[in-house]
Amino acid sequence: MVTTPTAVAERRARVRQLAQGGASSRQIAEQIGCSKDTVLRDLAQPDDLVAARAALRARKLAHAEEAVSQASAAAQAVADARPSHQMTDDETARRWCGALRAAADALAAQADAFAEYWPCATG
Question: Quick one: 48 and 100 in the same domain?
Answer without folding.
Answer: no
